[in-house]
């Protein structure tokens, strides 16, 4: 399989890099929708360190028909730290046989526990919250209209409710969260590009801080506060006490975001989006449970993540302070 893929890569890269030989082809991960491979493309006078992301089929390309390579090109031009796209084809009608993109390989670490605990990242950790604010503000300034390249989501709460109700598996804590979120909706904001999964694990970090923002496949046009709420959710702190991905505070994040041109989001507004983030993660864990129970997936990782439904319920209860809880029950 690797030899066949190497030959297909050489053909696909010919237009961008000329004649190259593929070396060191190594699979890094194999998710439900796509695989990630590391390799070198060696020309007569230069060696290119690259990453391939290949979807399993044209049908699994991306949610909502997102043109992720085009979005990454837009992000790079807009000053966001992202890998440079070398070649891509989202049609699936290519030598690789599926939608794919090849990007420059950036050195760094994405495993949260290493970033949050290894001494080699101690200096980087001190500046991560400022980096997060800078990158999110840059993302939210990107100019990309909804349409063929990226879809718009006007009401993310309604999306989660639809997904939750489809399971026909009531969870009273989630029902309470839906009620509170519906009653306490925050102000609307000018729609913009939203990363959709900006969190520890999708951010590449080196000794100097954020090296690249990865995994844009859930991006959409929506409220910028979504990304802030998702980032501060307790699920992405990986056992650390810092409120923002295990480092820093919510206030520091909002200050850094605003200092880089982001909107003046308040702590109360952020709490609403953090609650939605917890609820969204809870719905995702429910989906993993359903896939395992119904035989659609044999992944042990998915089964284990599915057990975290109760952890998400606990996170929701932490956010439903007594005065908030009383209003939701009224």
Label the overall shape.
globular
Structural class: alpha+beta
Stretches where pLDDT falls below 50 for ≥5 residues? Answer: 58-62
Biggest sheet statistics: 5 strands, antiparallel
Kindly summarize this structure in a few lines.
It is built from 13 helices and 9 strands.
Task: Explain what this protein looks like in three dimensions.
This protein is of the alpha+beta class and 330 residues long. The chain has helices spanning 2-12, 14-17, 68-77, 112-117, 122-139, 156-166, 172-183, 225-232, 250-259, 267-293, 300-306, 309-319, 322-329; strands spanning 21-30, 34-42, 47-55, 85-89, 100-104, 192-194, 203-206, 209-213, 220-222. The strands form three sheets. Strands 1-2-3-5-4 form a five-stranded antiparallel sheet, sandwiched between helices. Strand 7 and strand 8 (209-213) form a beta hairpin. Helix 5 (122-139) crosses helix 9, helix 7 packs across helix 13 and helix 10 packs across helix 11.
Strand and helix layout:
Elements: H1 2-12, H2 14-17, E1 21-30, E2 34-42, E3 47-55, H3 68-77, E4 85-89, E5 100-104, H4 112-117, H5 122-139, H6 156-166, H7 172-183, E6 192-194, E7 203-206, E8 209-213, E9 220-222, H8 225-232, H9 250-259, H10 267-293, H11 300-306, H12 309-319, H13 322-329
Antiparallel strand pairs: 1-2, 2-3, 3-5, 4-5, 6-9, 7-8
Helix pairs in contact: 5-9, 6-10, 7-10, 7-13, 8-10, 10-11, 10-12
Give me some keywords for this one.
330 residues, alpha+beta, Phosphorylase Kinase, domain 1, Aminoglycoside 3'-phosphotransferase, Chain: A, domain 2, five-stranded antiparallel sheet, 13 helices, 43% helix, 16% strand, globular
């Amino acid at each position: 399989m690797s030899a066949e893929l190497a030959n297909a890569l050489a053909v696909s890269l010919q237009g961008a890099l000329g004649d190259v030989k593929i070396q060191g082809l190594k699979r890094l991960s194999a998710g439900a929708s796509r695989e990630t491979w590391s390799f070198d493309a060696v020309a007569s006078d230069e060696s290119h360190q690259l990453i391939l992301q290949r979807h399993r089929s044209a049908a699994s390309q991306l949610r909502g028909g997102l043109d992720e390579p085009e979005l990454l090109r837009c992000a790079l031009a807009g000053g966001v730290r992202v890998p440079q796209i070398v070649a891509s084809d989202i049609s699936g009608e290519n030598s690789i046989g599926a939608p794919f993109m090849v990007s420059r390989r950036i050195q760094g670490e994405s495993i949260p526990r290493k970033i949050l605990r290894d001494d080699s990242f101690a200096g980087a950790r001190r500046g991560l919250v400022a980096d997060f604010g800078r990158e999110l503000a840059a993302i939210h300034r990107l100019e990309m209209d909804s349409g063929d390249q990226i879809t718009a989501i006007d009401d993310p709460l309604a999306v989660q409710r639809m997904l939750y109700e489809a399971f026909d598996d009531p969870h009273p804590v989630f029902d309470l969260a839906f009620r509170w979120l519906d009653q306490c909706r925050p102000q609307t904001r000018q729609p913009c590009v939203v990363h959709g999964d900006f969190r520890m694990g999708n951010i590449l970090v080196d000794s100097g801080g954020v090296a690249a923002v990865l995994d844009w496949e859930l991006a959409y046009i929506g409220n910028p506060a979504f990304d802030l709420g998702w980032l501060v959710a307790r699920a992405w702190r990986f056992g650390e006490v810092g409120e923002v991905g295990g480092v820093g505070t919510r206030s520091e994040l909002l200050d850094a975001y605003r200092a880089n041109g982001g909107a003046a989001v308040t702590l109360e507004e952020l709490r609403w989006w953090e609650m939605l983030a917890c609820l969204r993660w809870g719905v995702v864990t429910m989906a993993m449970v359903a896939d395992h129970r119904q035989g659609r997936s044999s992944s042990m990782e998915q089964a284990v993540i599915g057990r975290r439904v109760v952890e998400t319920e606990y996170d929701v209860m932490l956010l439903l302070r007594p005065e908030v809880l009383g209003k939701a029950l009224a």
